[in-house]
Amino acid sequence: MGNAQSNRRSPVSRRAYLKAAGAGSLVGIAGLAGCTVDTNGGGGGGDGDGENAIIAGTAPGFPPFELKNEQGELVGFDIDLLEAVVAETDYSLSEWREFEFDSLITALQNDRIDVIAAAMTITPDRRQTISFTDPYYNADQSVLVRRGGDFQPESLDDLSGRRVGAQEGTTGDGVVQDRLVDPGKLDAADYNAYGNYVLAVEDLENGNIDAVVLDRPVAETFAQERDVEVAFTVKTGERYGFGVRQNDDSLRTALNDGLQAVRESGRYEEIRNEWFGGSPS
Ligand code: ARG
């Protein structure tokens, strides 16, 4: 087959990686639940102590949306975008807190954070418990396999009888459950739900599992950094939004206005180009 290294169409910018992450830096993010990261006043331009100071929550290990760079700093598209959006509002961002993805909604409901910026898909289920801003990014699900390996599935059905991984509580987890495990196409024992996708991709590289189901832009990023490739994509038509508490109308409205402002100013496109590579159009 073709040389996977020459995948010119991948949208992820090498530059963003060199700048923010460095080779091999996508490791070592396990066990982060509850860690606190001080942004030194990042975003908002305020001192973060004002009445309108808000705390953001995310789940790193999901490049290029949120990841740790070689210095251990939290970086990524979501980080830059939320900070730019908040800077357009009367709020200021005082802190980023890190959780496993599965804990973010609870953290929001318990007031440990005020906004979720974690490439979180807007779903009817999640809407039962939290609210979302307007969408800021679109994605489908992709299936990752070992690069150049014998196993080259073309559809979800081809994952039958294989060992499959996804991150717990994600829409990828939902695809595996709803379309493979529940209909009896995949034995529950052959499905591993991981705390984060870095661990899943490491297990894939090591041969402990045969496929990982995850958001396409993230799959393409792992394919650039690691010994894995995208086998196929499942159209799910997902849209990411920032999550806020259901009663927090003023924050949701402010973030929507801020989102519109960063789109209109060209800042959104700059951030996107920085993390996904520029496709001048
Ligand atoms: N978009 C998917 C979802 O909402 C995956 C998000 C995972 N995000 C993360 N930061 N790990 O379920």
Structure description:
The protein is of the alpha/beta class. It has two domains: 14-136 and 241-276, 3-Layer(aba) Sandwich (D-Maltodextrin-Binding Protein, domain 2); 139-237, Periplasmic binding protein-like II (D-Maltodextrin-Binding Protein, domain 2), CATH 3.40.190.10. Helix content is 30%, strand content 23%. It is built from nine helices and 13 strands. The strands form four sheets. A five-stranded mixed beta sheet has the order 10-9-11-8-12, sandwiched between helices. Strands 1-5-2-6 form a four-stranded mixed beta sheet. A two-stranded antiparallel sheet has the order 3-4. α2 (77-87) packs antiparallel against α9. The structure holds arginine. Residues 58-59, 62, 66, 101, 118-121, 167, 170-171, 215, 238 line the site of arginine.
